[in-house]
Amino acid sequence: MQLRYSYRIDPTPGQRIALAQAFGCARVVFNDALAVRDQAYAQGLPLVIDAELSVRVITAAKKRPDRAWLGEVSAVVLQQALADCTTAFRNFFASVTGKRKGPRVGAPRFRSRKDHRQAIRFTRNARFCITEAGRLRLPKIGDVPVRWSRRLPGGPSSVTVIKDAAGRYFASFVVEVGCEPLPAVGAETGIDLGVGHFAVLADGRKVGSPRFLRRAEKKLKKLHKALSRKEKGSSNRAKARTKVARAHGKVADARREFHHQLSTQIIGENQAVYVEDLAVRGLARTRLAKSVHDAGWSSFVAMLEYKAKLYGRTFVRIDRWFPSSKLCSGCGVVAEAMPLQVREWACVCGAVHDRDVNAALNILAAGRAERLNASHTRGRDGANRPGGGRVRPPLAVAPADEAGSHRGAA
């Protein structure tokens, strides 16, 4: 599998000028390619193929006086910008025709020079390398110092140089890594994600929500107020905008670090992890929107998924319509209603449940059943096919070390 490894880089003032020029050239090539294809569509002409587009917006453009400066940057940067435009069109067409899953993707839009996040990509054809002194050598830019926070596991296939809104520079390497299975363990867990507690595990552990954005609100409010008072287009407004971006960057970095630490711990302690597939987009349109964005459930679940694949663990998403909170983990009875303010409830069987712990137990049971469904090769009708037989979730979660009986035993 391919993973990204990002590091801070510290380009010199001259290298920053060269990077700014490369950012601008990549943006111009992308916009020119988009304009050519939009014009062809408006005139009823067929889509311009990639080879012809490359000649028109790169090769021939370099010979024109108004685009001669395209020759001052690496040709690979321009070709990658053109590839990004092609990818954007393909994603758009696949979304329109229904071949692409997920939310609808809009048509490609022109890139603005006022965007505060800029990026360029170098592939192996650009012959970038890491020098013996530990610097990143980029064509027509030079040897850029890198803050090596960890070792690269292999040779990178590409590197993306990014300048974020806070003015920080990063080098993001794409590296092909193999699976590194961890020693097998007997524990499994279900995770119920929430707002009050960030995560509740099936064993009863509750992980508090750090609320990074909420804790930084007072400082952010002060910085935003200072920004609003600066004259548009002035140097002071640019400085104030950078301060706001840095404050937001600290919040995002702290949240990402928390997600990495917790996901690594959960994957290391459990052989299988089961998580409910939350409708984050829908929840982000409710009164809980700020808390939902502050928690960052989607990025956390994505980390669990790729780390499970990397370390040889099992990861399963449970259907979002599964009534994990209303289902009694003891007898299987589903309650009629369960408002959010109800944190504890009693079932008709006499069991008293903590809402979140009960949901985690139900997610664990449903996850085991879903995992068993995927492993079945024979359906109830006798046909041999993957996932042929449906298995109902058990009424109660059996311990991992509980003794069982085999079919045919006396």
What does the model show?
With 410 residues, the chain is an alpha+beta fold. Helix content is 39%, strand content 17%. The protein has 10 helices and 14 strands. The protein has helices at 13-42, 50-59, 75-96, 212-215, 217-228, 235-269, 280-283, 289-295, 297-310, 355-375, and strands at residues 2-9, 118-123, 129-130, 135-138, 142-145, 156-163, 169-176, 188-193, 197-201, 206-208, 272-276, 314-318, 344-346, 352-354. The chain has a 5-stranded mixed sheet. Strand 13 and strand 14 form a beta hairpin. Helix 1 packs across helix 2, helix 5 (217-228) packs antiparallel against helix 6 and helix 6 (235-269) packs across helix 9 (297-310). The chain is elongated. It starts with a strand and ends in a 35-residue tail after the last helix. 24% of the residues are buried.
Notable characteristics:
single chain; 410 residues; alpha+beta; 5-stranded mixed sheet; 4-stranded antiparallel sheet; disordered C terminus
Number of helices: 10
**Whole-angstrom Rg:** 26 Å
**Taking all residues together, what is the mean pLDDT?**
88
Gross geometry: elongated
**Main sheet: strand order:** 10-9-8-11-12
Question: Uncertain segments of ≥5 residues (pLDDT<50)?
Answer: 377-382, 384-389, 402-410
Q: Approximately how much helix is present in the residues?
A: 25-40%
List how many beta strands DSSP finds: 14
- Secondary-structure class: alpha+beta
Alpha-carbon distance between the termini? 47 Å
Order of helices and strands: EHHHEEEEEEEEEHHHEHHHEEEH
How much beta, percentage-wise? 15-25%
Characterize the largest beta sheet: strand count, sense, and whether it forms a barrel: 5 strands, mixed
